[in-house]
Amino acid sequence: MEKLKRAVKEIAYARDQAKLSGFHRSLVPFLSFASSLYGVVLSLRRSLYCSGFFSRHRLPVPVISVGNLTWGGNGKTPMVEFIAKCLADYGISPLILTRFGLGSSNSEVKSGWFSTFGRVSQVSRIGSILAAFYFASGYAGGDEAKMLQRHLLGGPVKVGIGANRMATANLFFEKYGYVDCRGSKLFERTYLDQKVGSHISLEKIGAAILDDGMQHWSLCRDLEIVMINGLMLWGNCKLFPLGPLREPLMALKRADVAVVHHADLVLEQKLKDIELVIQEIKSLPVFYTRMAPSCFFEVSNINTKMHLGAVHNAVVLCVSAIGSSDAFVQGMEKMGPIYVDRFDFSDHHSFQTKDIHMMRERLRQLEDKFGYKPIVIVTEKDYDRDPQILKHLHPFQVLVLCSEMQIIARKGCNEHHLKLLLKELLEVKLSGAD
């Protein structure tokens, strides 16, 4: 399965299809057929929602959707966390709604997708295969939810996990209550103005953030933010699974804000090209973000914080199963290790015993080559996916890199401007809400 995942991704982002291996070329006809079928299912599903055949539900609080058009590595989870903290600073208790997490098993989610594809296409075998490709390409995972819960523990932000996000939201509304801000100023009480009345309770939910929500049609949203991976754009511009697109690029017309992630690792001309493509589809405010490393902690002791200089002049093995491993490795290279090796897995891959054996073999090779023990570096997502299995790399030291998303000041736009824009767009949407 891991070989299939890699092959699908390599085909989607191949610069020259003629240079693909025989194995890759043998997959292209099937992927092309599956991509066409996926497009039909996607179009039918969208039509059924737009016609009202499938119901769209509206929550009693404002809904901010953070989504993307391609595979992982777009920065959705860091942006969700950024917005949640921003709302909390303004005295609003947000509820994050995410599909996958601690209580959702892959078998349950796969079962739902197999059923959906089987019903819509009425070709259960093809539908099941297409659903398998969906999961082979790294769409499902609970690591983000675990990371959000760990980062936001003890604050006013709540994390709701479940495939039926309307039902999940209702459970939280019943437990905590909600503040209906429609028809009023959402941000009338801010952390800068503590004299405003205290009728907004941090216990009651004042807004919802839809994680990975762009393709979640059943829930209405007041603000649509689309995340774009600056390092890995739209590949061959084909629909999944032949390409990386979950929807055609014209879906950008539904967005209110576009955010280019990993912009610090992208050449200026490429950033201009990205902005041009966006503006040709829709005139959108475009912001740029980066992941800023802050510290390390040891897998064996999450409470130990280590300075980024811990890897200076060290031999490092970067191990990751994330959507944008290149960004992770490039960030590590900037911290001054004398040598950086890498072990990449597909997005959301759960490390197995055989993977640990392969890592240990690579580590022994590096130790023989350089004369001292290398350090293993993983991302927070990799740690949260399974905190225990990485301990089996002992006696090699395993560090977890902590990073936070930052807004890059560009063309007069910075973090302050993004917060102001979010406020303005939400208040405009809510003043005209049904």
Please give a structural write-up:
- With 434 residues, the protein is of the alpha/beta class.
- It has 2 domains: 54-104 and 135-285 and 413-431, 3-Layer(aba) Sandwich (Rossmann fold); 292-405, 3-Layer(aba) Sandwich (Rossmann fold), CATH 3.40.50.
- 39% of the residues lie in helices and 19% in strands.
- The protein has 12 helices and 12 strands.
- The protein has helices at 2-12, 22-50, 76-89, 106-121, 124-136, 143-152, 165-176, 268-281, 325-333, 353-370, 380-385, 415-431, and strands spanning 63-68, 93-98, 158-161, 205-211, 223-229, 257-261, 286-298, 301-306, 315-320, 339-344, 375-379, 398-407.
- Strands 1, 2, 3, 4, 5, 6, 7, 8, 9, 10, 11 and 12 form a 12-stranded mixed beta sheet that branches.
- β6, α8 (268-281) and β7 (286-298) form a beta-alpha-beta unit.
- α1 (2-12) crosses α2 and α4 (106-121) crosses α5.
- 39% of the residues are buried.
- Residues 102-129, 135-140 and 189-200 have low confidence and may be disordered.
- It is an enzyme of class 2 (transferase).
- This is tetraacyldisaccharide 4'-kinase.
- Its EC number is 2.7.1.130.
- InterPro entries: LpxK.
- One of its GO terms (molecular function) is lipid-A 4'-kinase activity.
Portion of residues within helices? 25-40%
Return the CATH topology of the largest domain.
Rossmann fold
Stretches where pLDDT is under 50 for at least 5 consecutive residues are 102-129, 135-140, 189-200
CATH architecture term of the largest domain = 3-Layer(aba) Sandwich
Structural class by secondary-structure content: alpha/beta
Mean pLDDT: 84
The figure for the number of domains is: 2
Strand content: 15-25%
Distance between the termini: 47 Å
Spatial extent as radius of gyration: 22 Å
- Give the helices and strands as they follow along the chain: HHEHEHHHEHEEEHEEEHEHEHEH
Shape: globular
Number of strands: 12
Most strands sheet:
12 strands, mixed
The CATH class name of the largest domain reads Alpha Beta
Count, helices: 12
